[in-house]
Amino acid sequence: MLSRDQLREHLVRSRIAGDVATSRENNLDHFSSLANGDGYYRLGLSFDQPWSYRDILALMAKSAGVVADPGHRWGQDTIDPELTIDALDAMAGRIAAVLARPNPRILFATGHPTGLLAVHLPLARLCAERGARLLTPGEGWTYTGSSFGRPRRIRYLQDIAMLDDRGGFVHTHDAAPMRHMLGELGGDLPDLVIADHGWAGAAGEAGAQTVAFADCNDPGLFVGEAEGKIGVVVPLDDNVLPRYYAPLTERLVTLVTRAL
């Protein structure tokens, strides 16, 4: 496992954190849309209090490390690698605590088959090796969302839920698949959900203990964390080359293993 300093350098070099690819304009547009009540950016969550644009910007500066200055409106934005590592360590603690229980039930899902799947797969393997039952509800369930206009279905790869569109796994922010999966469990919530995007938001909204990964242009999950619906959110660029996530994943797996 890389040292903290080495991991920080890797996160910045690979642009998982530091100067990330997500533009300032994109971030502020998403913060504004969430503040204006656009359900797409809630990622399946409802909030207990109103969140203004300034409130969301301040939260994202605190939780993800975006530039706090509201006058910075164009160009580069950032994720603080120290916050990424802190959240990784907190996530490892949550996962280890669940795995320490007898026969825990864990649900994995990702809206990033070309990115974060590379993190989920080793974590799922570790959980299974440590005695967890990996849940696979809703496999084959099909629906048509408003954003794509044709049927997509839930499909699992090594117990990781994703959306399939005509034979290919696809990127999604949708919360509907996770809502269906939890509904199929009949109210018997998993002991832990490890997810991102709407998969994580819907799980947190339903009351499941949830840990998540989120980019700096996905403020909904960070608001969910601030309100206590999501346990931990790891800020990171969620779509760099899959191999770049290996040191990050190694830290998670190593810390979970050491804690057990």
Topology, element by element:
Elements lengths: L3 H11 L3 E6 H12 L17 H11 L12 E4 L1 H19 L5 E5 L7 H13 L3 E2 L7 E3 L6 E7 L2 E6 L2 E3 L5 H9 L7 E5 H10 L3 E5 L4 H8 L5 E4 L10 H14 L1
Parallel strand pairs: 3-4, 3-7, 3-9, 9-10, 10-11
Antiparallel strand pairs: 1-2, 5-6, 6-7, 7-8
Protein name: Phosphatase
Pfam families: Phosphatase (PF15698)
Organism: Nonomuraea rosea
Key features of this structure:
single chain, two-stranded antiparallel ribbon, 260 residues, Phosphatase, alpha/beta, Phosphatase_SCO2771
Number of helices: 9
Radius of gyration: 17 Å
Low-confidence stretches: none
Give the SSE string.
HEHHEHEHEEEEEHEHEHEH
How many β strands by DSSP?
11
Q: Approximately what portion of the residues adopt beta-strand conformation?
A: 15-25%
- Which shape, going by the Cα principal axes? globular
State mean pLDDT (0 to 100 scale). Answer: 96
Gap between N and C termini: 17 Å
Pfam family, one: Phosphatase
Organism: Nonomuraea rosea
InterPro entries: Phosphatase_SCO2771 (IPR031423)
Protein name: Phosphatase
Describe the structure.
The strands form two sheets. Strands 3, 4, 5, 6, 7, 8, 9, 10 and 11 form a nine-stranded mixed sheet that branches. The chain is an alpha/beta fold. The chain has helices at residues 4-14, 24-35, 53-63, 81-99, 117-129, 176-184, 197-206, 219-226, 246-259, and strands spanning 18-23, 76-79, 105-109, 133-134, 142-144, 151-157, 160-165, 168-170, 192-196, 210-214, 232-235. A hairpin with a 2-residue loop joins strand 7 (160-165) and strand 8. It is built from nine helices and eleven strands. Helix 4 crosses helix 9, helix 5 (117-129) packs parallel to helix 9 (246-259) and helix 6 (176-184) crosses helix 7 (197-206). The model has no long low-confidence stretch (mean pLDDT 96).
